[in-house]
Amino acid sequence: MSALEIHNVRKEFGSERVLKDVSISIDSGQFLILVGPSGCGKSTLMNAIAGLEPVTSGNIYIDGEDVTWRTPADRDIAMVFQSYALYPSMTVRQNISFGLEMRKVPKAEREAAVERVADLLQITHLLDRKPAQLSGGQRQRVAMGRALAREPKVYLFDEPLSNLDAKLRVDMRTEIKKLHQRLGTTIVYVTHDQVEAMTLADCIAVMRDGHILQLGSPDEVYNNPVDMFVAGFMGSPSMNFIRATLEDNNSGSYQLRIATPGEAELVLPWPEERNATDMAERLNQPVILGLRPEHFSEEDERLTSQAEGTLLSASVSVVEPTGADILLRLPLGEQEVTARVGPKCTVVAGDRLSLRVDMGRAILFDAETEQRIA
Amino acid sequence: MANVIRRQTPTARLGRGLLYSVLILAALFYILPLVVMLMTSVKPLSEISAGSLLSLPQNPTLAPWTKAWGEACTGMRCEGVGGYFWNSFAIVIPAVLISTTIGALNGYALTKWRFKGSELVFALMLFGCFIPFQVVLLPMAQTLGWLGISSSRAGLILVHVVFGIAFTTLFFRNFYVGIPNELVSAAKLDGAGFFRIFWRILLPVSAPIIVVSVIWQFTQIWNDFLFGVAFSAHNTQPVTVALNNLVNTSTGVREYNVDMAAAMIAALPTLVVYVLAGKYFVRGLTAGSVKG
């Protein structure tokens, strides 16, 4: 039985449709991440799950029970808010036990729950402070503690890390992941940060304009995106989209010709094992070739026998060392692409460089519909 | 300007000196009426008729104060303004408490439990702030008559509550708008209801705006004359009306010292409130605008 099932949920504000037939189902213990740009409806969906906003139509089931028209309190969920929403007049201890108090849990049990949660999150020394006396990271912990104290069926996290500074964000991300692994809780987590989505999720739902574009594991979403939006949204730096024409190479396989006005022609072979059924209809038509920065690698002279990949040569326009690796910007036909190469690479701007392209991982999109072809 | 560091040249010092002189003169000018009132109220009548307005009292006496409090004639009766002073309190305290409570609940509902048309309701309530008192005198008299509480203390309290709600709602609504809705969402998820959220989450952080509302309402209702004179009977008159009657009772010599003492008595509570809580008033009005 799924811990959370969202069935054809629609939400309209007046004539504006914010959620359009959204359906998701996750199992108990799964970590679902709703990701997408601002205004894609992810927070609205979260609020619908929480019961803070009524849906226009559709159903929401938690642990098999239809909770669509239940109040937030009767859904057995807890939520961690972006602003933490700690009660300013209460101490940390009161904040954590408030939900239990409202549910008429006896005092001794409440205290035990506070101790347990404080211990888990290492906030025991903060229990008698007021939220105003806490740092951002500490508030974040208290907010999680408040959710954990009740042991609900589903946890909702609404962009919980977006108010933290970069370093703390990474630390808390790891902490949330550890916590999830340890407690095996069902979590729905909203973020616009694709790195958080990739690192935390069992299952990612990429949303746009009230639709779920793709629902799948981080690996699926990253390596097999359904369209150009998902492909471009996941991954940083994002995927390169290169305009090309699909051609027949006269020996039964396909190739991609990239327009290079005034330069030597640039043709990339399409690996045969990745052929899709409808590619024949698209011969001599424009397509978009999607290549992630890491699909490029610098040519190493010592390994001349490299069979994988296709060589291409381009002059580097910008070199951006990040420390762990180097990002190169290079013109390819009419567009500029980003390539990620090893930190030992010694190119400078203006150099001409041979790069190997891993066409086995390339993705092909329809130039008009932006849907994936192969 | 205060942050600009400048060398203290003689001209700059002269400028400063001039500036302060003007400011001090202006301050003296503004405080003068109060000083004159206070001085006059402790002078015997003979000194007033003989000396000038600004001369210091030669033989200070509290007799005008005791007379104003307990003996001076207000119309037909000669019992001073003391009784009316307590009348005012009996009207002001419940009216302030009720209007502040209702305003707080209104502000809470209008910001945290929005409903279709809640903005319109707020706009209409806001409209109440701009209705001149005179306009409602007759309909209000009718209404009080129907309710059977005309000329009673309860009637006056009702009138002040009705008028006060517009302002208190405005205060609380604008204060609660600045309090994140997520706080209410979190409390809903925790299982708290409408009143519980108000009582446990919102009210404990409302101190600054409660102070503003109480001070505002207190001074407004205490200083009210029009409703007091229109909707009260002899035994329920507030002190402002009594003061008017006292000053306008013309039998024999006009006792300026008693008039001034009575005026001071009538003004004292609002003065005390401002002196004690004035800084909280300013703080409350600007609360939220400073916090980032």
UniProtKB/TrEMBL annotation, chain A:
PANTHER family hit by this protein: ABC TRANSPORTER ATP-BINDING PROTEIN, MALTODEXTRIN IMPORT ATP-BINDING PROTEIN MSMX
Q: Which residues form the ABC transporter domain?
A: 4-234
- A GO-annotated cellular component: ATP-binding cassette (ABC) transporter complex, substrate-binding subunit-containing
Instruction: Identify the InterPro entries for this entry.
Output: AAA+_ATPase, ABC_transporter-like_ATP-bd, ABC_transporter-like_CS, ABC_transpr_MalK-like, ABC_transpr_MalK/UgpC-like, Mo/tungstate-bd_C_term_dom, NA-bd_OB-fold, OB_MalK-like
State the Gene Ontology terms under molecular function: ABC-type transporter activity; ATP binding; ATP hydrolysis activity
Top-level taxon of origin:
Bacteria
Its source organism is Vreelandella boliviensis LC1
Query: What's the protein called, per UniProt?
Result: ABC transporter ATP-binding protein
From TrEMBL, chain B:
**Record localization:** Cell membrane
Which residue ranges run through the membrane? 17-39, 84-108, 120-142, 154-176, 197-218, 260-282
Q: How does it sit in the membrane?
A: Multi-pass membrane protein
Question: What residues does the ABC transmembrane type-1 domain cover?
Answer: 85-277
List the GO terms this entry assigns under cellular component, sorted alphabetically: plasma membrane
Q: Can you tell which superkingdom this protein's organism belongs to? A: Bacteria
Q: Which keywords describe this protein according to UniProt? A: Membrane, Transmembrane, Transmembrane helix, Transport
Q: Record's InterPro entries?
A: MetI-like, MetI-like_sf
What's an example GO BP annotation here? transmembrane transport
Pfam families linked:
BPD_transp_1
Q: Does the keyword Transmembrane helix apply?
A: yes
Q: Does the keyword rRNA-binding apply?
A: no
Coiled-coil regions in this chain?
A: none
Record's PANTHER family?
Answer: ABC TRANSPORTER PERMEASE PROTEIN (PTHR43879), GLUCOSE IMPORT SYSTEM PERMEASE PROTEIN GLCU (PTHR43879:SF1)
Family recorded in the similarity comment:
Belongs to the binding-protein-dependent transport system permease family.
**Mind telling me what this protein is named?**
Carbohydrate ABC transporter permease
